Structures are given as C-alpha cells and as structure tokens.
UniProtKB/TrEMBL annotation, chains A, B, C, D:
The keyword Nucleotide-binding applies. Homotetramer. L-aspartate binds at residues 122, 126-127. HAMAP family: Arg_succ_synth_type1. It holds the Pfam family Arginosuc_syn_C. It comes from the Bacteria. This is Argininosuccinate synthase. Pathway: Amino-acid biosynthesis; L-arginine biosynthesis; L-arginine from L-ornithine and carbamoyl phosphate: step 2/3. One of its GO terms (molecular function) is argininosuccinate synthase activity. Residues 6-169 form the Arginosuccinate synthase-like N-terminal domain.
Length: 407, 407, 407, 407
C-alpha cells in the first residue's frame, strides 16, 4: 500500500483519536480531514472542532454532523424489524453504528479528494473489521489506516509521552488507565476490559452509566403505549415522533426503570471471547414492543421464517457485513414481512423489566371467533382436526410400522 | 375405525375427564383403564384413584405414577440444552409434557391389552395433535379417541347434565364456567380462554397462580449459583440435586421473586392465534443459567449452529413431533454440542428478572490472555487482523468494482 | 358448507372432468362455469368448448385461455431464479402450475358471481392441497369442491356407468384403465401410478412421451447459448424470445437429446411416498444454464444464502403455499439476488445430459487478475492469507487447548 | 514464530515438494521428516522414498502410507451420507482429502518430536486454509510452514534455478510451465489454472484424464446394483467390498461411461472466484445411488432437515473446518438419519449420465397400499385430506380476510 496523501479520520475529539490525528500527520505527512458524528453518544461535538483546529486541521477539513435520525431510521429500525439479537441476547448496539460512520467516512473522502480513511479501533476487536469491510464495500479503492495495528505506541506510558511531545492536551482523568473502556450511541452504552475481564466477577455498580439501578428504580410499574407502522415505532402514548425522538424517549423511560442491562460473554468475529456490560434501555423496550405487535399482525409462516433467519442476520451485522448482498437479501425478506406490522402495544416497565401486556391493531390476524372457548358459530369445524392429525401422523405411522417390522 | 374394546384414558380425576370416562363406558361400552400422572401439577393423585373406583374402574386398571424425575430428565432437560423458546419467548411448558403422557398411555395400553387410548384435549388446540402424533409414532396400530371432537356435549349445561345423570360428583366450583382454563406441570402453568381472550386487555391479577407479583416480591436481589454438567443443571449453591429437585427448587425461587410471567399471543399449529398467560418460574431461571454457562464453554461455531436451528427445534416440539426423526436428529446435534457445557453460573433474582452476573468453568474457552487490553505476551498478533480483513473484504471489493463499472 | 349455487370447474375436456361437470350439475343442481387453460400441455382446447356446450354449459360460462406466457413469466421463471429442486432432484413441474390455475379459477368465480370452484384432483395427492390452499389464500370465502373426495364413483366401472347414463361421450381408449396417470404442461410431463407403482421396477420405455431415448439421440453434442437478464433466460443463440418461447425452444432441444428424465420416489405433503417419472427437457437445460450464469455473477455471500434457503422454498411450493407470506418473503430475497444475474452461458447437449461449458458477462465477478497462477501485479497479497488463517484458527486452537487441558 | 527445529513435510516426491524440502533445510536449517500418502492419486510412492533419501532424509524420517481405506471410510463416506455438493454441483474431492493428510502430519510430528509441519499449497487457494485449520485444531501448539507464502521463488525460472543449484533432479517435462495444475485422489481429479483461466472458453479435451469422453463411451447403457448399509455403500452387484474397493470399482465404471465431468466456477474461501474442471466418476455414481436409496428409506422429516443443512455442511468442509464442533454436530445429525438407509439401488450408466432406475429395501417406507390408484382397503381415508387442507388453509384465510378488510 502506497502512503496516503489525505486521510479522513473518524475523530471523537478525545485523547486517543487526537493522538491518531497527530500520528497520521507525522508518520505519513498527510493532510487530515476530521469527521465527528453525533450518533447520540451524549457528548458535545463543538469541542472536537476547537481541538481539531488547535491540532492544525483546516476549517474546511472539519466535518461535524448530527446523524441521529439517519442512524435510527436507516440502521436501528431495519435491524429491529428482525427482532435481532446476537447469541441470544445482545442487541448489537455497537455493531449497527459502524456502517453509518464508515459510509460517511467514504463519502467525505470522495467529496474532499482523500485517498484514505482512518479509525481508532484496535487490532483485537470487531470494530476494525466492521469499519474496514464497510469502507471497502462502498469504495474498493479506498485505503484504510488502522493506527493501533501499525504504531509502536503499545502502552499507556508511550501514548502519554507521544501526546506530551506533540502538545496534545491531556485531561487530568485521562493520564492513568481507565478502569474499563466505553462505547456509546443512541442505542446503547457498552463497557468492557480491565475490571470487567474476569467473567466470573460481578460487574461493579459504577460500570453502569446509562440505566438506573433496578433496586432503586420506581416501586410502581409504569405503562406506555407504542405504535408501529410497517414494523417501525412511530408514536408513543399516541404522540407521533421521529425515529431518533422515539429512541431518545424510550431511553429515558428505560433508564428510569433500570431496563436493558446485560452482562454478557460473546464470541468476537476475530476468534476470541470477550465480556461486555451492555446497557440498551430504549432498545430493550423496543424489542419487546416489536415482538408484541408482531404477535397479532404476523402469521406463523412469516414469523417462523423470520425467526429462523434472525441468528444469521445478527451474525452478518455483528461481523461487519452490513453492506453485503446477503444482508440486503435478508433485509428484503424481512421488510416484506413488515407490510402489516402496524398497530399498538401496551408495555409495563418495572424495575429492570419490560413486558408487553396488551396489543391491538386493525391489521390483527387474531380471530376471537376462531379461538373462543364459547360457541364459535361454525368458524372452525373441530372434525377437521381429525383429518389434519391423521395426515400429519401418516409418515410417523409408516416409520413406526417399518421400525417394528425390523425388530 | 372399529369401536374400541379397552381404552386407556389420561385421567386427572377432575370433572371433565370423569365425564369422558363415563362417556367412553356408555358410548362404546368399553373397558376403561385410567392413567393419572404426577408431572408436578401440584395436585394430589390419590383422590383420582378413589374417584376412578367410584366410577367402576377395576383396581388393576388404575395406574397412578410419579413421572416428575423422568419428565425433567428426559424431556425438559434435553429441550433446555437448546435454549428453546417458541416464537421468541414461550418456554413450551405444555408442549413438552405431552410426549411423556402419550408414551405411558401407549405403554399401559400394550401392557393391559387395550386397543385404544383417550385424551381430554379439545378439537381447537395443539394438545390433541401432540397426544395423537406421539401415540401414533409409538404404536401405529393404536386407536386414539378424542371425545371433545366426537360427542355432542357442546356446552357447559350439557356437560353438567351428563354428569348429574351419571352420578358423577360435581365440585361446587365446577358448576359454572371457569373464568379461564389452566394447565400445569413442574415446568409451567398456562392460563387461557374466557377473560383472557381479548389480547388487548391486560390479564387480571387473579390469573397468576404460580408466581408472586413482582411489585410485592422481595426488595433486595437474591443471588444463587447453578452448576451444569454436560448441559444439564445438576447442583444449586453447590448442592447436588436430581433433575426434578432442581426444577422444584428453581420454581420456589422464581415464585418468590415473581420471575417467569409471560403474556403471549402465539400461533397454534392448527392455524389460529391464541393468547396465553404463562408462568414458568424455574424454567425462566434455567434458561438464563444455561445461556450463561454456554457463553464461556461453547465456541462460536457450535453456538451459532445451535442458535440457527433452535426455532425449528422449538416448532417441532410445539407441533407435537417429539417422537420424529427430525427431532431426534436435532437432539443428536444439540447433545453433541453439550459435551463441555459444564461449569457454574451466578444469577441475580429480583422482582421479575433473572440475570446471569458471573460464570466460571474448567471447560471455559474464555482466554483472558487473548482478550486483555494489557500486554498479551504474544498470544495474539494484531497484524493478523489486517490479512483477515483483507480476505474477508475481497469479495466485497470485487462486488463494488463490478457495480461501479456498470454505473 | 352450504350447497354451491354456481361453480367454476377446472375443465380439461377429458372424460374425468366431464363426469365431474355432470356430477356437479346433478349432485348440487348448480350452474357450472368451465375454465380450460393452455399451460402448454400440448392438447387442443377447442374440443373442450364443444364438449362443454354439449354438456349444457352456456357459451358465456365457457372460459378458454392461453396462459403459457403468464405461466413461464410469473411462475416458472421466479422459481428457477432459486435453482429450485424438491428433495434434491425434482423440478416441480406439476406444483408450479397449480397456483396459476387456481388464481384464474378464483378470478373467474369473482367475475361470474360463482360461489364455488371445483377441481379434479384426488384425495391422495398433493394437487388437491395446492388447488385449495391457493384458492383459499386468494378468496377466503370461496367454496372448493373436490368431487373425488365426495362421490361414490370409486371404481373405473362406476365412472363409466355414470358417463354412459349421462350421455358423456367416452373415447375408446378411455374405457379401460390407463396403464398410468399423466400430467403435462409447458414445464414437464409426469407419469405415475399403476405400472409404475413398484419403485424397484424400471419404468417401461412407453412411459416416456416427452423426451427421446438418450440411446437413440444424436451421436454428436450440440452447443447452444442462453442469455440471461436479471436471472431470467431472455435469448437463445443471440435471439431474443419471450418466456414461453424460450421454454418451448429448450423443450425441443431437450427432447431431441433425451434430456430431463427423472425416475423418482418423493414424499407427498399428505404423508406417503409415491413414485413418478418426470420429463422436464427444457427445465433441466434451464437449471444448468441458470447455475452457470450465477457462477460468475453471484458472490458467495448471496449464493450460499440462496442455496441454504432453496430446500425450504421448494418445499413451500411443493406443498402448495405459493400464495403465502413465506413464499413471498423468500421470493423478495431471491429476486434481490438476481439484479446482476445477467450474461450468457454455453451449454453442451448430448444423450441425456446438459453441461455448462462456458459463461461470460459484463456483470462477472470473476477476476482473472486475482486468481491467476501468473504474476498478479499485486492484486492479491499472499501474506494476507496467513492472518486470515490465524484468526479463523483462533477458536479452534482455544478449543484444542481446552480439550487437551481436560484430558 | 520462532524457527522450527524439525518439520514434517507433506511430500509427494515431485519437483515442487522436493524444492520445499531443500528450502526448509537451507532456510531454517531444520531436520525434515517426509510424509507421503497414497490417497488413490494413482502414483507410485516408492520413488518418493528414493528421492527423499537422495535429498538427505534419514530413513526413519520417511513415512509412506496407504490411507485409501481410511480416506473413504472416515471422510468420503460420512460426507456422502449428506449428499454433499458445494454450490449446487461440486463433490468436494479436494477438500475432503486435506483433513486426513493434516491429521497424519500432526500425528507424525507428535510421534517424531517435530515442532512443525509444512505443506506445498499456495497463498491464493483453499488448501492452505484447510491444511492449517486442521493442523491447529488437532494440535494448537504446532507450527505450520507454508513456503509458497514465505519464499521469493516467485517464478518458474527461480524455482528451476533453485532446484539446479541444489541438485534436485528435474524431470524433462517439469522444466516448462504445466498448461494447468492437477490434484488427484481416489475421489476425484481436479484441473485448474493457465489454459483454464478463462471461464468462457471450453476446456480442451486433453484436460480430462480421469474419464473417457462420453461421445466415445459405450453405445449401450450398463446397469449395476449398489447396496447400502446405514448410509454407506457396501456391495456392488451383490458382492461385498471395502470402502476403497467400492470407490475404485465405481471409478472404473464411471471412467468407462464418461461420468462425473464438471466444468465449474466456484467461490474460494479466500474471496475470489476460480474455475476448475473436476472429474469425479465414482463419486458421481455414488451420489445418485445414495439419493436413490434415501428416497425409499428416509421419511420427509428427516430428508428435508438434512437437505436444508447440506449447503452449510458443504461450506464447512470446503472452508476447511472438518475438525470443528459445527461439523461434528452436523455429522451427528446426519449419521442419526442414516440408521435405516439400508437397501439396494439399480443404476443406469450411459454416456456421461447416471440415473437411479430402481430401488428396494427391507427398510423401505414406501407403501404401495397407501399410494395405490387401486382400492387401498382402507389404508388411507380420503376424507382426512379435507380436514388436513382446512387447517393448513386457516391461516391463509385469516390473512386474506385481513388483507381484504384493509383494502
């Protein structure tokens, strides 16, 4: 790979990406463009601009964008249409943010004439894979620079030395090692590493930043109603909201009731296991809500097909293949199923839990006439069941007859 | 189908199966054998014997058996090895009990020379299918009688009339319609019908019989440890227990903490949707525990394969195909995966929730050496990630190149 | 079910459906509408009109339609996009024709004010299921009459008697039992029953009607080129043709070279096994051609996903669920994959076989630059493979380390 | 990776692996152990011994083994139980040989105290992945050396120079570039590269080495009978044979009739497409035979489950994960299905094709009593079909009613 001339860096404004910024300038002598996105991580973005300018970035090379609506509309919502969880439980809060960041990195590179992009993910994790696969899928010519895999700044001491030598300001609390590593966006906050590395040990209380402790959460359940249109949540308690507003509101409710904590050991795509603490307050509510509305609006053929493909869809997203034919094919299948996933659910929020306790819809397939224990006025002929069972049993009888014959 | 001469009836001792008993005697003039099983439904069985004798059943034709250990060991535990849930959430508490009852019905029929079996399931539900498929799979010659699909006792009034005419004692509270219908065993209690038929309406408090209300559950979390051996829970807080003892103990804990309530609309195999309230206290804890121990003992190849087949496995059980080649094939696959699912998890129980908060095992695949943020002493070479990504990206690059060329 | 007043009958003009026609008139006293479709079965349709008139059908109640183009365009082609085979080998020639016939039956019923439709499929086969599921899916109020399941004309003698009593003309060769039963359309001819009922016995030569004997087929291979656009065959040897023209032309070629014979024992949806002789000359060529063009235009992610879902898609079609959400969802996935399945294949036809021997496309993903044994000018860095392997091996190493530790 | 001290080399005795042998000695100064296996590639092995001795290998370090029986019994046969084909058509002849070679490499390393193994696969192909994943899965400490990824002998000229400088004898026909590359074992011969690199161009006749040209093959069909026991072919024309004898015999028959040629473009695991010519004469016959016996001995539940998992199983083998939990899990499922796959098929071999034309078995599930067009003496009640259809249709009716209501 020839040396990059102009690099778009995914820049948070924090110490680590500031070091990367400077390292790119010094190591490659290249022009740096910074890209800082608001995906709902809960940090001010303007300090990133000041810091970038201080590090010598030209104003026209500083891109700061609020991507929250696009994030929820085009990434989070499509994923939730599939009731997606990785390895049974994880709501993919980190995974789903990477494709959008990568897409903007590539677009900004193309707009600014940059030949490379750079990210701050390490060589041990999934994020490097997600960033790079997405970038290459969108621009096969782009160079991707992953400083953590390249440089020799392999200890905290060396990083701090580099920062000091290069006049990068160091916040007081960044001098030492953080007790664990954090990633956040509108969907979730993840914490991992250091004090969390022993999966036998309970995560200490101070790890949780995004959800109140269920023990101290309100002592009475709260009830809310979420309305869906074609698989996406569009209104809460009857009030229409935008995608990002919906997730923001559900996050507030989830935080208050201590909903969405997950202590998890997962299999990384790069082959090792890692332990993470995930907090996904709004997403956890959204998953239960979506399942609830599907219960009455999706028939079994559609539902079972979706369910059987969800693990694969989750794996594709987790592994970083959002921009791949197989993800797009599965999305087409999933989206097709959502045409009638329209209606409202009532949810109970209480001390760490969310339960669907009611659901209704003009699109409902639930037929009280058929299911009733009362007289059904001929909606269903119980005699049909005999034939249904006989033909379903036929192959089992033939098997049993064969097996008995051979004994 | 020629008339049965001797019928083994799945007999609870309650009013409905007593009416069936009498109806079989009068309708077919056949000898009746009663089979009453303790699957942990929480009812005394001896009254069933007295009632059977009173209804003219010969003592040698009365079979009363405690099947709790067999139920958990050979049905519940194998199912939980797959983390099985139907349609995302239901733990299959009713479905998993039917094969065992059917197996004993057929075995007793063969032992007593009966040519038929009978059950008390209605023509609208799944249970008729489960009973009959299982019976036919075990004995292709057996006749199965489903009185609810045959007789004309189509209203509560007619049933009560029949009972009175035939000197069947009627408990005071059985004269009127029950407000909903209940099924129970060691794994769960289900409630459905009548007051629960509108899926928009919240289930009234009095429906819940098996779990305390989370609101009034203890205000402090309780922590327990569950130990697994080859996928099955074998010890709690360090104390070895039998399969049924384990589930009984987890049920007590789950009840106390209000764990395992589910308000659910599901797709029946017979084609309609129905709404049920399920309470699965111990099972809900067991599922979380099993997932927790798999997190560190199962590698991603095994785990993802299992996960992708679980929905199908659940559907097979739900639909009543326990004794089918496909269930046995999947079981072979699942059991193969459990050879190292051995170790202990710590669980937090609190007001309706159960969370795995720690897990450890001699069989653990978690490698702190590999995942650590600290120096890993060469366990993992971050440079490898570059090649890994490049080759995973190759087809995406070729796709992007093709697609750009054609624009 | 109340008695039908007006029935649309799927009418071939042959003896059996003529008997049904008369039986409907006499049994139900209802008005009959006949629907006769040309799906390429190779029979004249006008005699059906004359016969219908002779049997008292009003001219405005006689519908005769050429559906060949619609059949191939909307049913056969979508199915071939998935390389669909049932149970490894069967090209679903009967299954795929039923939905279209059903669709027109329902549409004609709605246009003529009929409240019922009727078909001539027996109670043992798959076709009754396919017809009826399709009709109910398109019109949930329609009645479907299946005379073979209702009447008492249970032997050839009784049928002939009924025909004679009702002045239905009987062709000389229809008096006796046919030696086997035939179904034909543009995609295939199937033969089953009678002389074919012993699956150990080779099918006699006279069963084959649609393909020449490979032994006497031309002694030299013939080469053709088939061009695809978005997954559908659109030109042969450079000449654009319509969908039905394409299949007709491939049928001629396949017939000449003895291609597409299959002696098969399959599992019917109704639970039994049956043996059929299938001749699918054009379809067999089309399958090989489509696979060939996908080889260079589909990437592995898309191809493997499609392949893994094909068996399910085939089962859905075989079982009669063409008009179901799950088929439509899978179709959306499959169609999404075909956007670049455009290009040309060369095929060799010779004595019962068809082989793809060349393929090329502007949409090709094949990169000689990458795969070459020669110098690849840096297209591919072999060093990347080391990292790729190391990370793919990591979990296997961790497994092996664990397993050795425990020995 | 520290330098290896003693290396077991997969040694064919040919020029390339002789160069590797010498290169290992000179580059690493390490002791070399050679392992030469007979997997049915059709070459004498003793010349490899002489050549190894000539290149300075100690006699006790030369391992030459006939692995043909183990190859077919423990690798080919288990794979064929699943009717395994990769990407619809390829019988995995190369893939399935690699695990066995790797297993012996590791075992010999452990027996001789070697710390490394080496193979002659290039950095662009799948074989490097298969060798290395298998070795690491069997011994996580082993070093694997892949000279083609390391050395600078990047052209034919450099290789020949190296050979000449090191007194490695060069056969006259090995001086120039071979027109294509060949791999062979008892299951297949593959040819790829050079003259085959353009997938639009027909493969020249001289590429085919393992099968006679169908055009000149015998003009009359030949019929054979193959008998299976629990899924494996055990006798031909009534004569019991060992696994390797079976495949050898089928290879002779397939060769004679020109069976098993495949011109194929496949997706390599390393991300690119490649074109290969495969000749799998015996395997192609075996696949058709196995499908034929499964047709009557496997029920639909078992068959459809197997079919749906086969693509994944094939991918796992192709990608080199034979020694992985997921392959072993799938094998357990597949093997479970084969318990009754016992019986005999008759096959027709003719000019490039093989067709199953008859099959019979004591384990047959085919019931002429059920399927017959004649009177079935009550084996099957056609009325049952009505109920079967009604309940299968119920959800479709509910869907149609919903969709009509919303129009």
């Amino acid at each position: 790979m020839s040396a990059p001339k102009k690099v778009v860096l995914a820049y948070s404004g924090g110490l680590d990406t500031s070091i990367i910024l400077k390292w790119l300038q010094t190591e490659y002598g290249c022009e740096v463009v910074t890209f800082t996105a608001d995906l709902g991580q809960g940090e001010e973005l303007e300090p990133a601009r000041e810091k970038a300018i201080m590090l010598g970035i030209k104003p026209e090379n500083i891109f700061i964008e609020d991507l929250r609506e696009e994030f929820v509309r085009d990434y989070v919502n499509p994923m939730f249409r599939a009731n997606t969880v990785y390895e049974g439980q994880y709501l993919l809060g980190t995974s789903i943010a990477r494709p959008l960041i990568s897409k903007r990195l590539v677009e900004i590179a193309e707009a600014t004439g940059a030949d490379a992009v750079a990210h701050g993910a390490t060589g041990k994790g999934n994020d490097q894979v997600r960033f790079e696969l997405a970038c290459y899928a969108l621009n096969p010519e782009i160079k991707v620079i992953a400083p953590w895999r390249e440089w020799d700044l392999t200890s905290r001491t060396k990083l701090i030395d580099f920062a000091e030598k290069n006049q990068i300001p160091i916040a007081r609390d960044k001098r030492g090692e953080a007790p664990f590593s954090v990633d956040a966006n509108l969907l979730h906050t993840s914490s991992e590493g250091k004090v969390l590395e022993d999966p036998a040990e309970m995560a200490p209380d101070y790890v949780f930043q995004r959800t109140d402790n269920p023990v101290t959460a309100p002592d009475e359940p709260e009830y809310i109603e979420v309305t869906f249109d074609k698989g996406d949540a569009v209104a809460i308690d009857g009030k229409a909201v935008t995608p990002a507003e919906m997730l923001t509101k559900l996050n507030e409710l989830g935080k208050k009731h201590g909903i969405g904590r997950l202590d998890f050991v997962e299999n990384r795509f790069v082959g090792m296991k890692s332990r993470g603490i995930y907090e996904t307050p709004g997403g956890t509510i959204l998953l239960e809500a979506h399942r609830g509305i599907e219960q009455i609006t999706l028939d079994s053929g559609a539902g079972h097909l979706k369910d059987s493909l969800m693990p694969r869809y989750a794996e594709i997203i987790y592994n970083g293949f959002w921009f791949s034919p197989e993800r797009e094919m599965l999305q087409a299948l999933i989206d097709k199923s959502q045409e009638h996933v329209t209606g409202t659910v009532r949810l109970q929020l209480f001390k760490g839990s969310v339960f669907c306790v009611g659901r209704w819809s003009d699109h409902s397939l639930y037929s009280e006439a058929h299911v009733t224990f009362e007289d059904d006025a001929g909606a269903y002929d119980q005699k049909d069941a005999a034939g249904f069972i006989q033909l379903n049993a036929l192959r089992l009888k033939l098997l049993a007859t064969r097996n008995r014959r051979l004994k």
